[in-house]
Amino acid sequence: MAKNEPTPRDTNDAEPKPGQDGNRKMSGIPKRHGKGNGNAAVKVEVRAGSVDGAKASNANASKPGSKAGQGSAGGWWGTKPMYWYAVGGLFILTVVFWGIVVFSGKKTSSPAATPDTVAQGALGGVNLLNGVPMDPNDVGAWPVAMMFDNHPSARPPVGVSKARIMYETFVEGGTTRLMGIFDDYPGLENIGPIRSARHYFVEIAEQYQAAYVHAGQSPQASAALDASKVVKDVNLIGSGAKYGHRESDRPAPHNLFTDATRMTYMKKDKHILAERVQLETLTFAPEPALGDRPTTPLSITVNFSNLSYQVDFKYHREKNAFERYLAGNLHVDAATNEVLSPKTVAIVKVPPETALVEKGRIDFDVSGEGDAMVFFNGKQVNGTFKQPTIQDRMRFYGPDGAELALPPGLIWIIILPGDRTVTVEGGQPADATADQTIETNATQ
Questions:
Q1: Angstrom distance (rounded) from CA 173 to CA 330
Q2: How far apart are CA 392 and CA 389, in angstroms?
């Protein structure tokens, strides 16, 4: 493991704790949707009633010189056997009380998740990000947004399969970049490679109040981070260099990684390790049993710019998920050897990008309202997305205006500006009605 390589540029040394505004500047960000204060963080504390005071009070009462100990000869404290009965009873009550406190705090093992446990709540909690059943003690763990390099020299990615939600869209020069939203990274020794921030990714992170992990930033992203009241800046080549490390088996700048241990320390330093976040949840429903899933093949192709960044998703009936291909090859997580297989693929259409002044950088909307193609349970819905402000969760709606109920699991959101080509082959519409016409085997 090579030594960290921080660069001189670091414009984000002062980082407010959750809930603090920090008097940030707003200049330098392309004019976009207005920003609000976001949702407030809520710290969950469990407090047991104090028994020490009661013990001290009873101890004082039993002292010979105390008024409580000066009852009549036939009274409660005046009779020696009754005194010892009271002391023994108090001791038993104390033991029982602390036994309840200790054993009620122990976690019990949870049953394996099945499709029906989502509705029944068999695990007692539901993940706020993507609806999977989980231990209620872990619900609301603070989200971490990580910027992933998608350059050919940065492949394969490491640790990305553990994200709850993944975003994919353009940076400059026709290249794409990924941003994963995590609330856990179980035992991952490497996560990355991590690359630099863009302002529209910062805006996406707003809806999660996320700690935003990146490696440097554009000037517009610096302004967005300064302006945000909820996003926590974690710059791995700046003030957050201790949370990253370089690997020697890849060329720079495609070799900067973090890991589960460093992210745990980061959350502790940011005072969000024990905090619980309040987030709006999407609508989720149990996935269909194997026999109820479509047998018709379904594939989706997104042509971002060239073959190096062409993306395909192919429905896998047994997984009830879409296996992802990048540049014609299965997209595999090197940490887990898992094929990246989202349960839901949502392609969001937004207006064309506009050019910024420097280095071919671009700007486009990542919120608002517009058309969306949503694929889940082996089917397709041509509907809409709605996100009134960047602090709101992006939601998906069918042609009847009702919010779509998605299967729990990884959600992959592609934000596609302009008239880029999306080709759908095979498949069938989800709960098609007379108002819903889905073109298949055609370019959409």
A1: 24
A2: 5
Ranges of the chain whose pLDDT falls below 70: 1-123, 430-444
In 156-267, the DSSP E strands lie at: 165-170, 176-182, 211-214, 232-235, 245-246, 256-257
Verdict on whether the full-model pTM lies above 0.85: no
161 phi and psi, to 5 degrees? -65, -15
What are residue 326's DSSP bridge partners?
A: 311, 329
The residue ranges of every structural domain in the chain are 125-269, 290-435
Q: What are phi and psi of 261, to 5 degrees?
A: -65, -45
Confidence at residue 352, expressed as pLDDT on a 0 to 100 scale: 96
Q: What is the pLDDT of residues 62-96, one digit of tens each?
A: 333 333 333 333 333 344 455 555 556 666 665 55
Q: What element of type H or E holds 379?
A: strand 379-387
Which H or E run includes 125?
strand 125-126
CA distance linking residue 154 with residue 132, whole number of Å: 30
Fold of 125-269: YerB-like fold (3.50.90)
Q: Is 123 left (phi over 0), alpha (psi -120 to 50) or beta?
A: alpha
Whether the CB-CB separation of 320 and 407 falls below 8 Å is answered with yes
Residue type for position 208: Y
Alpha-carbon gap, residue 124 to 175, rounded angstroms: 42
Domain 290-435 has CATH 2.40.30.60: no
